[in-house]
Specification:
The structure holds two protein chains of two kinds.
Chain A: H1 2-13, H2 17-30, H3 33-43, H4 54-65, H5 69-79, H6 82-89, H7 101-110, H8 116-127, H9 132-142, H10 152-163, H11 167-174, H12 185-190, E1 205-206, E2 208-209, E3 222-228, E4 231-238, E5 241-246, H13 262-265, E6 270-280, E7 283-284, H14 287-294, H15 301-306, E8 309-319, E9 322-323, H16 329-341, E10 349-351, H17 360-368, E11 375-382, E12 390-391, E13 396-400, E14 404-415, E15 424-433, E16 436-443, H18 449-461, E17 463-467, E18 470-473, E19 478-483, E20 485-488, E21 496-499, E22 502-506, H19 518-528
Parallel strand pairs in A: 1-12, 2-13, 8-10
Antiparallel strand pairs in A: 3-11, 4-5, 4-6, 6-7, 6-8, 8-9, 11-13, 14-15, 14-18, 14-19, 15-16, 17-18, 19-22, 20-21
Chain B: E1 6-7, E2 12-14, E3 19-21, E4 29-31, E5 46-50, H1 54-61, E6 67-70, E7 76-78, E8 81-87, E9 95-101, E10 104-108, E11 130-135, H2 147-163, E12 168-171, H3 177-184, E13 192-194, H4 196-207, E14 216-217, E15 231-234, E16 251-255, H5 262-268, E17 272-274, H6 282-292, E18 296-302, H7 304-313, E19 317-320
Parallel strand pairs in B: 3-4, 4-5, 5-6, 10-11, 11-18, 12-15, 12-16, 13-14, 13-15, 16-17, 18-19
Antiparallel strand pairs in B: 1-2, 2-3, 7-8, 8-9, 9-10
The complex binds zinc ion (ZN) (2 copies).
Chain lengths: 529, 334
């Protein structure tokens, strides 16, 4: 675990990609096959299941550290990460031992078979043999929350360096539903032609935001369509079955049972790229409807009725079992249209229609009405482009609709967590309702570090009242709050809930009296809710 | 009972002696715990500080400032108050200020740390009835790396960078932390370079008799070529200045108590974070407060609400006091 912890530290603390890459490649070259396999699994999001509830871990850690639970919680708030908080408050290990990464993962897995008392003593014994950094990683494994600042792409590049294999081949090998329990280093990485590739998606091609599409050149070279506000996915029809993958490489086939019938209409060896949308009466229902449904462990009859989904297809990556990704977008698109023509019109599958335009100005007008169509804006794709892997600049662009904005008064402040633990960064904003300020949104991003430092100093001097970590401050500052959507909410005092609120700018020029009102918000709700 | 010390919007005030301790607004008379800018501000009529703090004060405030000095442990009568200064272990010359009025003793800690850094006069607990304690790092997540291990970490980092032909830039506050680090590292690994702000402070401290290893200021002609494998002690704001361009590819690190937190390390955008502070960690704060025997504790400067509640649960009569010291966010956060 020491080697793995050292690798983690090098990756975690470095901002330089080449340092991370070298550290990873170096580790992969030295570790045992089993540790290598687990490392790849962890770095690609295949982590062991949560073995102990967070509640128990907090209790046990507070107990071992001899802290009251509230103080543990206060510490947790500052650190912002449970695994890290525990690793910091525990006393130094009394019996340091260096065991392999695989050993500790096996330990975590074995916890599932133990009763609570045995589980507790096993966890405490582990804490007592691990140093702070290793403890942090062990806790991450325990809580099932292992994530690191390494993209799958970087991981794959490191693997390519240490194995001498091609990046694209490895990317494909690493996708899909494997875990270190169901495969081996040999089978997954070394073996030449894995036969169990039927379910594997292609790496997704991701778009870059564009500010001014006119910079892209003549409109004739570009295809435009709506930017759908759902879940990006690949629909895979192979080997007599079907699979649905999300962009985060999650297998979601069972989440969307109504899409199963599509397998009957699509020929074997078909892979489509598209968006899963909650959809009714010929129009998307908006992301809120879909989100409610994804939150459920099991899809209920009610959810199926209230938020039925469709697959909005926009690209064809495989046909007749052949990889089409090197063909130009226009050609893939034509083949997609041909495939969809064979599908009955009432099936939950649609073609993402082209938005024809002859000038960027005309396209801007279409973009402008996005919100009323429940879409996020436009996608602009180069007609001649192949389907690339990952986020590559140049061929696919997203042109999002401008956010909605209101001017609001800051009334509460709370210190941030994790990387902003020593600054006030989490603010509550209010709008006027008569002479009252009604809170309606929380936001914690959008200011520069210098602005956060300035507001922090101000908060400290202008605190009216404290409620635990929250400070009520003098209503004195107006901020422009941007958000992506608004909906009615009975859980909020203001009666509205915003989607992705953030601070767009600090309106030092605006007196508090000129902030927006609740009536303004209700008007937006009526228009866009 | 009116307190020996009271808390005003200008700073900590002693009515019996008509003076302030570390005020943040201009007043007639101030007792200064140490030379950091959030404790020693310009524009005050008369300053009183230890002999070890006075040179830095003079350097910062200029020759016109009226600065009187006092030795550690010496008692001076001001009005109806007896005041004395006692080592706080924070930076060279730093003091806790003891104020006694009619048999009642209050102590204002300023900033302090309980571990001996080998540079500052070691912290001495002072018995008192009421103790005003900083608690910049008043949460149990803060535990400082032992000095020996710290030396190993920094030297290991520096040596590895030097072996790769890279310079090492170590960020630290100019007064105290920088000199402490110079005395911690193994000067045999390579040349020790300093930015202007650090070198100016070095000069002040050397002039008052503090021994520091030899340092080379980064002048125009100093670069990665002229001083291969160097360790550069830099102030936090200075790494974007021109000199940094003469050390391309340098590894960067920061030395601060905040480096405990992974999130803060990542926000800094540096290669390494070393956990070292001139404030007390959780264990240090608790030990210091216990050693004063104080019935009343006032906490400032940091995680005050949590620390106050903790102290109350430990049986102290603890209160939060709002001050203007920037220790929990600004430059002292180094
Ligand atoms: Zn200080
Ligand atoms: Zn301070």
């Amino acid at each position: 675990m020491k080697d793995f912890a050292a690798l983690f530290a090098r990756i975690d603390e470095s901002t330089k990609t080449n340092v991370k890459l070298a550290a990873l490649a170096d580790y992969l070259g030295r570790a045992t096959p089993q540790d290598r396999l687990w490392t790849i699994a962890l770095f690609t999001g295949r982590r062991p299941k949560r073995a102990v509830t967070a509640t128990r871990l907090r209790q046990w850690a507070a107990e071992v550290a001899r802290l009251p639970e509230w103080l543990f919680e206060d510490s947790y708030h500052v650190v912002g990460d449970l695994a890290e908080t525990i690793s910091l408050v525990l006393p130094a290990p009394r019996e340091p031992r260096d065991q392999s990464l695989s050993h500790w993962i096996a330990t975590v897995k074995a916890l599932a078979t133990l009763d609570e008392a045995a589980r507790k003593s096993a966890v405490i014994a582990a804490w007592d043999s691990l140093a702070t950094q290793e403890r942090f990683l062990f806790n991450k494994l325990l809580t099932g929350g292992f994530r690191m600042g390494v993209s799958a792409r970087l991981m794959t590049r490191a693997l390519a360096i240490s194995t001498g294999q091609d990046v694209a081949v490895l990317t494909h090998k690493l996708m899909g539903n494997w875990t270190p329990e169901t495969t081996s280093w040999e089978a997954l990485i070394e073996a030449d032609d894995p036969t169990a590739v039927l379910s594997r998606p292609y790496p997704f091609y991701l778009a870059h935001p564009v500010e001014n599409p006119a910079d892209l050149g003549a409109p004739a070279g570009w295809h435009a369509e709506r930017k759908w506000d759902g879940i990006r996915g690949q629909f895979i029809r192979r080997g007599g079955g079907h699979h649905i993958w999300s962009r985060s490489e999650e297998l979601m086939t069972d989440r969307f049972p109504e899409l199963a019938q599509l397998a009957d209409f699509l020929p074997d060896g078909t892979v489509m790229d598209g968006e899963i949308l909650a959809f009714a009466a010929g129009a998307p229902l908006g992301f809120n409807a879909l989100q409610k449904r994804i939150g459920l462990k099991k899809v209920s009859a009610k959810a199926l009725r209230e938020a039925p989904v469709i697959f909005m297809a926009y690209d064809l990556l495989e046909a007749g079992g052949a990889d089409l990704r090197q063909e130009p977008f226009d050609a893939r698109r034509a083949r997609l249209e041909a495939v969809l023509a064979e599908v009955p019109p009432d099936a939950p599958l649609r073609l993402s229609r082209e938005v024809a335009f002859d000038s960027w100005a005309a396209l801007a007008a279409v973009r402008h009405e996005s919100r009323s169509h429940n879409v996020e804006g436009l996608m602009i794709k180069r007609r001649a482009s192949p389907y690339l892997a990952g986020r590559r600049r140049g061929d696919w662009w997203k042109w999002k609709v401008d956010p909605l904005t209101v001017d609001a008064v800051m009334i509460y402040a709370q210190s941030g967590s994790g990387r902003r633990a020593n600054l006030f960064t989490d603010f509550t904003f209010a709008v006027w309702h008569g002479d009252d300020l009604v809170p309606f949104a929380k936001a914690y991003s959008g200011l520069t570090d210098a602005e956060f430092r300035e507001i922090t100093a101000w908060v400290r001097r202008n605190t009216l009242q404290r409620f635990g970590p929250v400070r009520q401050v003098t209503p004195a500052h107006v901020f422009e709050i941007a958000f992506e959507g608004i909906q009615a909410s009975s859980r909020h005092k203001s009666g509205v809930a915003l989607r992705f609120p953030r601070m767009l700018r600090w309106r030092r020029d605006k007196p508090v009296a000129e902030a927006n009102t609740l009536a303004d918000l209700n008007e937006m709700l009526a228009l866009y809710g | 009972m009116a307190g020996v010390l009271t808390f005003t919007d200008r700073g900590i005030y002693c009515p019996a002696g008509d003076f302030y301790i570390d005020p943040w607004r201009p007043v007639a008379r101030a007792l200064i715990t140490h030379g950091h800018s959030d404790h020693a501000r310009p524009g005050i009529g008369r300053y009183l500080a230890t002999e070890g703090t006075a040179p830095v004060l003079r350097h910062r405030l200029g020759d016109d400032a009226r600065i009187e000095t006092i030795a550690y442990g010496e008692t001076r009568r001001i009005g109806d108050a007896d005041v004395s200064f006692h080592p706080a272990g924070h930076v060279p010359g730093s003091a806790q200020i003891r104020v006694a009025v009619a048999g009642e003793v209050w102590v204002a800690s300023g900033d302090y740390k309980t571990v001996d850094d080998g540079l500052s006069e070691a912290f001495e607990p002072v018995r008192c009835h009421a103790f005003i304690s900083e608690c910049t790092f008043g949460l149990p997540i803060f535990k400082w790396t032992p000095q020996e291990q710290l030396a190993q970490q920094i030297n290991g980092w520096w040596a590895a960078n030097a072996a790769e032909g890279r310079a090492s830039i170590l960020g630290a506050y100019a007064l105290g932390k920088a000199q402490r680090l110079m005395r911690t590292v193994d000067a045999g690994i390579g040349p020790l370079l300093t930015v202007t702000a650090v070198e100016n402070t070095n000069a002040v401290l050397r002039a008052q008799g503090i021994t520091l290893p030899g340092t080379q200021p980064i002048t125009e002609d100093v670069s990665a070529k002229s001083h291969p494998g160097a360790l550069i002690i830099a102030t936090p704001g200075s790494t974007t200045q021109n000199w940094a361009r003469r050390f391309p590819g340098a590894a960067t690190a920061f030395a601060s108590g905040w480096m405990t937190l992974r999130g803060v390390r990542r926000r800094r955008g540096i290669d390494r974070g070393f956990v070292v502070s001139d404030h007390a960690d959780w264990a240090g704060l608790n030990a210091a407060i216990k050693a004063t025997g104080a019935e009343k504790v006032f906490v400032t400067h940091g995680y005050t609400s949590a620390f106050q509640r903790w102290l109350c649960e430990q049986g102290h009569d603890a209160h939060v006091v709002s001050t203007d010291y920037s220790g929990d966010d600004g430059e002292d956060a180094t």
